[in-house]
Design a protein that fits this description.
This protein has about 400 residues and is α/β, with parallel strands linked by helices. The protein contains twelve helices and 18 strands. The chain folds into two domains: about 270 residues, L-amino peptidase D-ALA esterase/amidase (4-Layer Sandwich); about 120 residues, ArgJ beta chain, C-terminal domain (Ubiquitin-like (UB roll)), CATH 3.10.20.340. Helix 1 crosses helix 2, helix 6 crosses helix 7 and helix 8 crosses helix 10.
Length: about 400
Amino acid sequence: MRWIPGGVTAAAGFRASGVSAGLKRSRKPDMALVVSDVPAVCAGTLTTNRVKAAPVVISRQRLKAGRAKAVLLNSGCANCLTGEQGMRDALALGRSTAKALGMAERHVLLASTGMIGRRLPVSRMQRVMPKLAAGLSRRGHHEAALGMLTTDAMAKEAAVEGRIANRLCRLGGMAKGAGMIAPSMATMLCVLTTDVAIEPSLLKRLLLEAVEATFNRISVDADMSTNDSVFILANGASGVRIRPNTPAAKQWSAMLQAVCQRLAYLIVKDGEGATRVATIEVVRARSDTQALRCARQIAGSSLVRTMLAGGDPNVGRIAAAAGASGAWFRPEALEIRIGGHTIVSRGDTNTLGKELVKRLMSPRELHVQVNLQAGRGRARMTTCDLTEAYVRLNASYPT
């Protein structure tokens, strides 16, 4: 397996495009389209928030058939809390997409991101649909990745290729997300594409495993979006077939997890106002479930994240978050390490010199290990610091 360029169009038989429909103040793309040249098997995982955007509701229904050819995405408007009219708006855009591409409406998946509570400017978006369809190409992956951004500072793309049964196959994707990131299936959207042939049930299972191990292990601000969507299309163009419980399935699953992990990391790195990325690793918990609960509590703690922003190893905040998580451990056995250096040992804080503190907290990527000394469970979360820039950005976000 090796990393390659191309993002969502790296796999054979996929094209993409991005255009501006004026949904945002800038002239950058705010609509994106990803299309498979042939009917593809599809799977997806969507937000578990009880408040769901119209495109989430529609796509959830269409995913049940396990077949799709296109994904239409827009930024600048979430199309959430828009009532029945929001559903009609989303369906109208799906119909326009299907007509422009000459395919069945049911084969178009939908995703939106942006301000909640506003209606989509449907007529304006429909006017640029011919341009969006005409612009589809293998080179259009970057414009498509730009078309799904909101407060993101950068496009997020990744792709790999590998040989399975002596045949070359590829898998790529694009994602967006910088705030309102606490996925539990991160405003997070992701489209993945691959040229292998695979049955819908297996594709869904392997996708869920990859999402659980990657996108569900990141947090920017501990807020879950109403629009989170991860889609994958598999069109079989490479001739590689993936069957259950085979070496090929294991190898392809590793490719999928690698791309998802890369995109998940880029989301955290691009967190609103972020200057540092931190991996929170909890080891020797009573169970993996308790370890994850503890890691998630620490990663989502505002006090821990402001500590990261200030470059101050205030381990009391880490210990307090661990203790509030519900994971069982004896405080007198707790151990905390930052950057490989033991800060807390047997529940007692070690005194640190200023030079050591500066050296420990200066890297832009930090590793924090919390050892509960209670069992064999382990888990990790990736988060970023909480800075004044995050507060300014979200305090001025328009309503």
